[in-house]
Fold this sequence. Notes:
Layout: E1 7-16, E2 19-29, E3 34-38, H1 45-52, E4 60-65, E5 68-70, H2 75-80, E6 83-86, H3 98-103, E7 109-110, E8 113-114, H4 116-129, H5 145-157, E9 163-167, H6 175-190, E10 194-198, H7 202-206, E11 211-216, E12 219-225, H8 231-239, E13 257-267, E14 275-285, E15 289-293, H9 300-308, E16 315-320, E17 323-324, H10 330-336, E18 338-341, H11 345-349, H12 356-361, E19 369-370, E20 373-374, H13 376-390, H14 407-419, E21 425-429, H15 437-452, E22 456-461, H16 464-467, E23 473-478, E24 481-487, H17 492-498
Helix pairs in contact: 13-14
Amino acid sequence: MTAQPVLSARNIAKAYGNIHALKGVNFDIHPGQVTTLFGENGAGKSTLMKILSGVVKPTSGEIVLDGAAVTFANSTDARNRGISIIHQELSLARNMNVRDNIFMGREIIGRSGVDFAEEERQTRLLMAELEEDIDPLTPVEELRLGQQQIVEIARALSVNSRILIMDEPTSALSATEVEVLFKVIRDLTARGVSIVYISHHLEEALQITHHAVVLRDGAMTAYAKRSEIDLEWIVRNMVGENFDLGSPPEGYAMGETALSIENLSVPDAAGVGFSVVDRLSLSVKAGEIICIYGLMGAGRTELLECVAGRLAPSGGRVMLQGRDVAGLTIAQRIARGLVLVPEDRQRDGLVQTMSVGQNLSLASIGAFTKGLFTSRKAETAVVAEAIRKVTVKTDASGAAPIGSLSGGNQQKVVIGKMLATNPKVIVLDEPSRGIDIGAKAEVFRLLAEGAKQGLAVIYSTSEVGECLSIAHRIIVMHRGRISAEFDHTVAKEKIMAASGEAVAH
Length: 505
């Protein structure tokens, strides 16, 4: 006999003007179980979670908590009733340390004010539970993205919620960190905590799911128990058909070497003499697509950021069409045709105060600027072409705020911004992070089309399945070096083994 739901959504609808983000959604959250929400970007998942956690009020419908209809005044009201949320986009104060972020707004008060020692003690316990060696007094801005995600999770766990909503909690985590999080989730559900889980990592999410809900265009298209579903069921209900992420583009001759990385070394940011990239050599031809796979800490991000000019090498060189780029700034490398799509689109890829169009035209603004004057006509043409090319779901003028777009469409804006510069080489660090399967397919289609036009493409990923999509070659990194090279016919297990990842048998 199934226990009564701890929370139920009844005919929840949300409209923003003429846009209906949710259309009468119904589902239950059961005590001590994981309910997973699947759906493409823009399907309404995050809007629904914001309603359940008191961040947003529904246009109509009701929330039933412990058998009684409730209305949340705000997120604090929901949290006081035992509902917490881990948002997809990190909400940490980067200039504050880990301890202060975790207890911000609900400080522990002692006899003489805030009890910082007790907060630090509890923070260390939370870090130990998550098996992460992070000092509570470390400023958040000094942590890598995956560690910042761990801090976000720790903050939610510190509240001791009855219902914990996790919106893309693993988007920046390594495979090892994901396993630790799943262990924490199993421990929480064993204690009766209910989890609402949102993820674009479909196979990963199936490991912990008890009930699955699928949303499409704001409406619920399917609901089932774990025993009744598989990967094909999820994809079919999400997008209406089962499709893959593409295959390596064929039917054209690759050109000359576009980018050559020669014996490149990148020092550790802490300055302890350790090289995170160690004498690495790699080249990519015009029209070729290379995937770089590796676990967290393998050196993928540092390699790509050094190539793009964001990090300085300690040895070796980067050659763009036979010319050394040493001494060139990021802007100068962009002008020469070498561009980077960074891992953290919110921090490094977008300007949140600008519109969609302003973000799209930002990297190529020099092409339609003369002196102090900008040609609006030329800029408008660039923006319209970029919106068409990368299929951003927004108005044709690009006047909408960048924050109004879904995560997948924001990522396409970052890619479109760089493609608008007409690059010769594009490097992308985790281009599919936090976007759904449909948006992933569109991103990879863009890259494949670019390769057919002679664009050299290097992208990194921590998902093995993405290695076997459009890449002509797969480069595996382990501890700063290339440990193996494969073509797209290789088995997943060989890629994982070359990366140092444990492979289940």
